[in-house]
Amino acid sequence: MSEAMIPLRIAVLTVSDTRDFNSDRSGALLAERLAEAGHQLAERRIVIDDVYRIRAVVSEWIADPEVQVILTTGGTGFTGRDSTPEAVSVLLDKRIEGFGEQFRQLSWQEIGSSTIQSRCLGGLANATAIFCLPGSSGACRTAWDGLLLEQLDSRHKPCNFANLVIPERGQHV
């Protein structure tokens, strides 16, 4: 008998100065993908690309015991307004160094050297896993299908991030 997957409560934050819920394809894609995988959408919001507004929402979710994972999309590039890494990195207790590296390796196959401009990152804060993804729906698909789908599945071996955010597993940071 195989072990049952433990669904996680995942919040999705879109960082954009121009998108709303009707035009937010990346946030919608993440919400759809996580539901298809058996997880629960804890909340979904859109915030402008402002360090303090991003930080306020992410901080709120980090403090909320009902949110186990936070996915942000947008604001990870190099343009003047891109500030998601600066907003989130100071909140992390531990960085997942390999997340950005692995994402860029997967993305290389799709967009070549342009992937070098991605400043996506992952980390843990207060037993909450946080992943900051680029704003394109293609990049969100790459990150979900290539990394997050397995790493947020409590059955994935030899290790996964799901078991770090499930309190009854006793392994969280």
UniProtKB/TrEMBL annotation:
Residues 11-155 form the MoaB/Mog domain. Keywords: Molybdenum cofactor biosynthesis. GO terms for cellular component: cytosol. One of its GO terms (biological process) is Mo-molybdopterin cofactor biosynthetic process. Pfam families: MoCF_biosynth. It comes from the Bacteria. Pathway: Cofactor biosynthesis; molybdopterin biosynthesis. The keyword Hydrolase does not apply. InterPro entries: MoaB, MoaB/Mog-like_dom_sf, MoaB/Mog_dom, MoaB_proteobac, MoCF_biosynth_CS. May be involved in the biosynthesis of molybdopterin. Belongs to the MoaB/Mog family. This is Molybdenum cofactor biosynthesis protein B. It comes from Billgrantia tianxiuensis. The gene is moaB.
